[in-house]
Design brief:
Layout: E1 31-37, H1 63-83, E2 91-98, H2 106-120, E3 122-132, H3 139-148, E4 152-158, H4 162-168, H5 176-186, E5 190-197, H6 204-216, E6 221-226, H7 234-240, H8 249-265, E7 269-272, E8 275-277, H9 285-291, E9 295-299, E10 304-307, E11 310-314, H10 318-326, E12 332-337, H11 340-351, E13 358-359, H12 365-376, H13 382-386, E14 389-390, H14 394-398, H15 400-407
Parallel strand pairs: 1-2, 1-9, 2-3, 3-4, 4-5, 5-6
Antiparallel strand pairs: 6-8, 7-8, 10-11, 11-12, 13-14
Helix pairs in contact: 1-2, 2-3, 6-8
Amino acid sequence: MTPSALPLGDPAPKDGILPAQAATEAAGRRFGLYVHIPFCAVRCGYCDFNTYTATELGGGASQVEYAATAQQEVRFAAGALKASGVPHRPIETVFFGGGTPTLLPAEDLAAILGTAVEQWGLAPGAEVTTEANPDSVTPESLQLLAAAGFTRVSFGMQSAVPHVLAVLDRTHTPSRVPQAVKWARDAGLKVSVDLIYGTPGESLADWKHSVEEALSYEPDHISAYALIIEDGTKLAARIRRGEIPPIDDDDHADKYLLADELFGAAGLGWYEVSNWARTPSDECRHNMAYWRSDDWWGVGPGAHSHVGGIRWWNAKHPTAYAGRIAAGESPAVGRETLDADTRYLEDVMLRARLAEGISRDRLRPEGRLAVAGLIADGLVDPRAAIAGTVLLTLKGRLLADAVVRRLLP
């Protein structure tokens, strides 16, 4: 997903050419593709992502024409990377996010993927994922996606409790989720489900029901995210007016602990603070690429890209984005070259959240000195630390942000 607010940065050149740093040692780095589909049938009350309903789109932005525009950016990307001296690499992961990618016809998603394959090729065993709402797929659309090369679908289930879904403004009914999961499995796709905990009015029993219901579908992967109230969202306004209660950190912790216990009992192991997989091969390799700072090109309005420490982001609104593409220009409106301190900070922030942990050798001296205190506070596993890896305990996962702050004094 792509956040609604873009960062500040330096102007991005219209030709998309990257600094020489981008090509340095690129042959040894993985390459992935993110495709942002910015359309939703309804804007969910908690959502702060760069998405638009049909009534919010101005002239020049069209769902009908979007696939062709995205294909143009894919071709532009391949040319820009080549002109920048970045060696050709096949795509290892592709992720269609949004928004709701499956609001577009499956044929459109297949066409975008096909153009990417024409330009770069797919690495053997490549992972190709699309997000989907349970009410935005059919058996036929999922069969078509599988035939086109998609390997995985991530369903936005969020909850199995109607009153919780209503607060979140989700449009599907709970009974639609197992149906969609079955269709995906029949098509030969791996299945992930996304859950959200901590919605105002959600009891612990409600959350337990949602987790148990999700597990009954036997997914390969589950993501469970604490609800965050973003300024400017409908949900934030409702809380401010006192219509619904605010979120509660203790409630979040109780629900995380319950989920982790139930996921573990069902055979899913955590590999990142908010993600669990049935086997290591079921982990979302595209997200792992983000957490390990691999290379990826982001297609679509507001999408972010990263190659060799160079990061850039596209025009936010679909109309502005489409205009730049139609003119043959880079859709990027800003970019930055990450300095050593920023790359170190992000490396620690992201790798510390992984079940593989972060090597103590990657830490600066002040970070290594903090490890003993983190062990004493029960936040870091002592055996792993002795072996040279900083690995969060269950308590440490609950306080992951605090751990990172102590590793980065």
